[in-house]
Amino acid sequence: MGRRNTPRNEGAVVMTEKNWNIEILVAEDEVNTTARAVLSTTTGEEHVGVGAARRNPADEPVAEIGDEIAVGRALADLAEHLLSQGARDVARLSGHAEQTRAW
Known about the structure:
Number of strands: 3
Oligomer: single chain
CATH class: Alpha Beta
Distance between the termini: 49 Å
Structural class: alpha+beta
Number of domains: 1
Low-confidence stretches: none
Strand content: 25-35%
CATH architecture: 2-Layer Sandwich
Order of helices and strands: EEEH
Strand order of the largest sheet: 1-2-3
Largest sheet: 3 strands, antiparallel
CATH superfamily: Rv1738
CATH topology: Double Stranded RNA Binding Domain
Helix content: 25-40%
């Protein structure tokens, strides 16, 4: 019996590249900053995270700090939303109860 030569990529998984975009909207006044992080998928689905920051009246007004905090919180909220949605989808497709924070 001879050896069978097989191509190196036989059985390889082909990766598909996707481009998801996040638009971040920031609104502020003298004390409050709010941010919305809107993720748009290639299927047209949108996921939204929100965040807010409030300047202590005793602090110097530095708009960038409020922006950073509000945007960071919006992105963290978006991440939590995506992870929770993924866990619900896995539970639904597997027929098992949803796990709490498996990541």
